[in-house]
Amino acid sequence: MLKNALSSLLLAALAGPAPIRFTTGEAYSAGAVAAYRGSHDKAYAHIDANLARHLESIQRWVRQPSVSAQNRGIAEMAAMLRDDLQKLGFKEAELVPTTGHPGVWAYYDAGAPRTLVLYLMYDVQPEETGWTVDPYEGALVDRDFGRVLMARGAVNQKGPERAFLNAVESIIATAGTLPVNIMVAAEGEEELGSPHYPEIIARYEHRLRTAQGVLFPMSGQDRNGAAGMAMGVKGIVSFELEAKGAARGGPQRAEIHSSLKAVVDAPAWRLVQALSTLVSEDGNTILVPGYYDDIRQPTLEEQKLVNAALPDLPAREEAMKKSLAVTRFVDGLSGRDMLSRLFFSTTININGIWSGYTGPGGKTILPHVATARLDTRLVPDQQPQKQMDLIRKHLDARGFADVTLRQISGYPPAQTSVEAPLVQAAISVYNKHGATPIVSPRNAGSAPYYVFTDRLKLPMIPAGLGHGGGAHAPDEYLVIEPRAGSRIASLAQMEKFYVDLLYALAASRG
Q1: What is the pLDDT of residues 424-444, one digit of tens each?
Q2: Which end of the chain is more exposed for a tag (fewer CB within 10 A), N or C?
Q3: Which residues contact 113 (CB under 8 A, 6 or more apart)?
Q4: What would the pLDDT profile of 172-223 be if each residue is shown by its tens digit?
Q5: Backbone region of residue 174 per phi and psi (left: phi > 0; alpha: psi in -120 to 50; beta: other values)
Q6: What is the Cα–Cα distance from 195 to 430, expressed in whole angstroms?
């Protein structure tokens, strides 16, 4: 046992990532960006007067299932989005067929000199067990935060997206038009890894290239009301490993009686052994040779962004742990070390493992197939295909050539500079609303930003006020009416932020 532990430690040390190096102690100051000074009182008043109806529009969206993994409600939600855009005044609004789920394209021509692309996802994750309400009821529930909308899609992403469209409605209703042109490029496969989103982009590429930037509406406040905005996302590859009974001697057609394990190989054990070679014993260091090699060191801009987040980080770490229901981070990480691991390191994670019988009672069998679904989050300059090639080469070298590796989806990381005019306009609006954002190098999650940042060379950001949680989990929520004294934005404040953002972008330079 001691020998195996020492061997694992040695492998981890040899295969682990290079230390993340910081060469500056300077910190970026989002607070130094001049606050947006515009006031659009008629649009604000329209939001206040129509808030109940705006909430009903969000509830209508979350009450429509749109589970991409199960192709459940997808067509209906795509049509709902298209129809809503038409009602708002988008003269172009159409379904876009792909080889997967349909996209939605729309264009609002305000005759303005600037154009904003709106990235929307209309799909959601499957609902889990453990919900305290029906996930598609659109229920309003009182919680510590105040009154929340609790539903699948409440925060990820239907709530923030429809709040943005509510703001668009109020501007058009009071000003007659928008301050910028808006192109909508929506997909129904984000939760599947956006495998067919490039088909939507290709159809409108020449028009999209004329825009000044891309916005992904998102509720960016944590449970304490601190606002954040990420300058990029990690890439991702979703894949499966599968072991079957074949040449090694396991059952090939169907499960067999478990007593035969005495003389028959088990694919489930084969899969477990293959998985165990990918990472160290604690699961936190990738042992695939070369897996960390292409990771670049943080740029000077990224270092300054991390440094700016340090002063109030302890409180935000505790809020993050509470929100995630965890007691500690890997290796007891905290401070800049924790942020560095979160932003600049790659991962291999098991999403699920299945084989044999897991129902009530018992069924003593030896399964003929075992499968695990995994994902790996990629940082600059890792590329999906190369990382898959490294895993395949590693499995072959460790004697697991018989284990199938099947890629499901994948795309590279993406990055935008904090100096982009769209970013500066967004920060100015946060500052107007008294919520100077913590600007981070990237989100530890993934979204298909690369089609805009790499292919179209457009800056792209997630932005918005408001707080929600429980994405991909039971009791997903979005705060609608925060408790008294809270720094969390209400639904009305969320929508007013978007009003200001559109006008700020119209007035921005570059």
Answers
A1: 999 999 999 999 999 999 999
A2: N
A3: none
A4: 999 999 999 999 999 999 999 999 999 999 999 999 999 999 999 999 999 8
A5: alpha
A6: 33
Write the single-letter amino acid at 171.
I
CA distance linking residue 214 with residue 184, whole number of Å: 10
CA dist 115 and 180 (Å) reads 5
Backbone angles phi, psi at 422, to 5 degrees: -60, -40
Decide: 31 and 431 in contact? Cβ < 8 Å: yes
What length is written for the chain?
510
Q: Is 116 exposed, middle or buried (0-12, 13-18, 19+ CB in 10 A)?
A: buried
Whole-angstrom Cα distance, residue 107 to residue 110?
Answer: 9
- Give the predicted TM-score (pTM) of the model: 0.91
Q: Give the tokens for residue 109.
A: 């021509």
- Other C-beta atoms closer than 10 Å to the C-beta of 125 total 17
- What is the torsional sign of CA 362, 366, 367, 373? positive
The label of the residue with tokens 């509720």 reads 219
In degrees and rounded to multiples of 5, residue 66 shows phi and psi of -150, 65
Contact (CB, 8 A) for 284 and 332: no
Residues of the chain with pLDDT under 70: 1-15, 510
d(CA 58, CA 461): 22
**By C-alpha distance, which of 279, 297, 298 is closest to 288?**
279
- Cis before residue 381, ω within 30 degrees of 0? yes
Closest CA to 167 of 44, 269, 337, 77: 44
Spatial distance between the Cα atoms of 260 and 366, rounded to a whole number of angstroms: 8
CA separation for the pair 28, 309 (Å, rounded): 9
Tell me the C-alpha distance between 22 and 394, whole Å. Answer: 31
Q: Is 371 helix (H, G, I), strand (E, B) or coil?
A: strand
Closest CA to 229 of 509, 462, 493, 471: 462
